[in-house]
Specification:
heterodimer; A: about 240 residues; alpha+beta; four-stranded antiparallel β-sheet; 12 strands; about 40% helix; B: about 120 residues; Jelly Rolls; five-stranded antiparallel β-sheet; 4 helices; 9 strands; about 30% helix; globular
Chain lengths: ~240, ~120
């Protein structure tokens, strides 16, 4: 494994998206001195459901799956975190055990800030708290939408909605189609919308037949967004 | 190994417990993967902590040992992985507390660090 190349928070590529975006350089420097940065490989775990939190994780680059294992042993993917996102904050500030597991989907650079320091930083710089509240609010909104979607929509609509969400977060426009810059297995797609992987496979085939999606190897392209919106039964 | 693993006295552990409450892990947890900088220093209290090299178990950490502090302070990769096994208790020594102690050159944590 390669030696970690430490990136200062001042030069962090995800600084503008993160919770420290409002801070001046002197405050950022202090955070930089107290954080620990590491590269995690695909399959590595950052934290595990049921274990105690002891700090906060800031995603510098890469993608992380946040999932929950139910009593039946089935995995539900709550969300995908990427650059600029914060992880572990809910459990840290509510002083509860982690209610989900964070697993690396692709090589990811993550910075860790310990509990003592993040509390001190928030007290000194309330702008961090505002950013955290904004992130929590967005996450809560997404969780509410997911709950509504699971109870009100059928699987076909949920899958179409998921592709729209993935397009919004990871879509890269390429000529007359959009490439999804995230590789998820059929099992993972199924775990994100609460269905079986066989069902996902069936509907992806249907979407391809309808000219909505294209696939090259493991990469998925969205070809017809309007039709996808129609299939998702939502109004943007 | 001397830089990586340090045996603490009962007295030192008691002092550290007063500074930082122990954490109980009910599930396995890879605290550090091989060649990563530790996020915290670890003091092993109860259960089992495995030291890994190339995904194979190298050794078990003796109870009352501290690991990762040197590499945390110097921001250098640890040449092994640390796995906290389920139903284990540990103390996490935070970087900010260590830097604060080193800067102030006083306090119980500083006394322990400086004696290493």
């Amino acid at each position: 494994m390669s030696v970690v190349k430490n990136v200062n928070c001042e030069n962090c590529s995800s600084r503008s998206k993160g919770i420290f975006c409002e801070l001046e350089n002197s405050a950022i420097k202090e955070i930089s001195e107290n954080k620990v940065m590491n590269i995690y490989k695909k399959g590595h775990t950052i934290f595990h459901q049921g274990n105690p939190p002891f700090g906060l994780y800031c995603v510098n680059s890469g993608k992380i799956k946040i999932s929950k294992i139910g009593n039946d042993g089935k995995e539900s993917i709550i969300r995908i975190a990427s650059e600029g996102d914060v992880l572990g904050h809910r459990s840290l500030f509510s002083d509860e055990l982690y209610n989900a597991t964070a697993t690396i989907l692709e090589d990811t650079a993550v910075c860790f800030i310990d509990r003592k320091f993040i509390y001190k930083a928030i007290q000194s710089h309330p702008a961090i708290a505002i950013q955290l509240i904004q992130k929590l609010s967005k996450e809560m909104g997404a969780a509410e939408s997911m709950t509504a979607s699971l109870s009100q929509k059928n699987v076909r609509e949920r899958l179409a909605e998921l592709f729209l969400m993935l397009k919004q977060s990871y879509g890269i426009k390429e000529q007359n189609r959009t490439r999804l810059d995230i590789k998820l297995t059929r099992d993972e797609l199924a775990a994100m919308i609460g269905t079986a992987s066989e069902t996902v496979i069936r509907f992806i085939s249907e979407f391809k037949d309808e000219g909505i999606l294209e696939q090259e190897g493991k990469v998925i392209f969205i070809k017809d967004e309007e039709k996808l919106i129609e299939f998702a039964n939502i109004q943007f | 190994m001397s830089k990586e693993i340090i045996k603490l006295s009962e007295e030192e552990i008691t002092t550290l417990k007063e500074l930082q409450p122990p954490l109980f892990f009910q599930n396995d947890f890879d605290l550090v993967y091989e060649s990563q900088v530790p996020n915290v220093g670890l003091v092993f209290l109860q259960g089992e902590v495995k030291l890994l090299k190339k995904k194979k178990v190298l050794d078990s950490l003796p109870i009352g040992s501290m690991v990762g502090l040197y590499h945390l302070i110097h921001n250098t990769p640890l040449p092994m992985g640390i796995k906290i096994c389920r139903n284990s208790s540990v103390l996490m020594l935070e970087k900010s507390a260590i830097l604060e102690a080193l800067s102030a050159k006083s306090g119980a944590l500083y006394q322990i660090i400086s004696s290493l």
